[in-house]
Write a structure and sequence with these properties.
Elements (H helix, E strand, L loop, with lengths): L8 H9 L3 E4 L10 E4 L5 E6 L8 H9 L4 E4 L2 H9 L3
Parallel strand pairs: 3-4
Antiparallel strand pairs: 1-2, 2-3
Length: 88
């Protein structure tokens, strides 16, 4: 069963796809972040999309504690682009 997506998910995903390679991973579950994004220089960055005020689920918290690569929580398109620009 697909996991529930935050209301801003499609907007952020679709905006990033205009510039970057984006894999929507929201249905993977087990705390895996919502998007895998490849920067223009080939860096892989994971993005967890949340609406303002929403908290990470227990599975998301565990994943964030375990994962040692680039992983960010973003709330809007500007934050997502700001993150990705730091990897270009």
């Amino acid at each position: 069963m697909p996991k529930r997506r935050d209301n801003n998910h499609a907007e952020i995903r679709d905006a990033l796809r205009k510039v970057y390679q984006v894999v929507d991973t929201a249905d993977l579950g087990d705390g895996f972040p919502d998007l895998l994004v490849v920067s223009r220089t080939g860096n892989i960055v994971l993005l967890e999309i949340k609406v303002v005020g929403a908290k990470l689920t227990p599975d998301e918290v565990k994943f964030h504690e375990w994962f040692t690569g680039p992983l960010y929580v973003v709330h809007n398109t500007q934050e997502a682009f700001d993150v990705m620009e730091s990897y270009n």
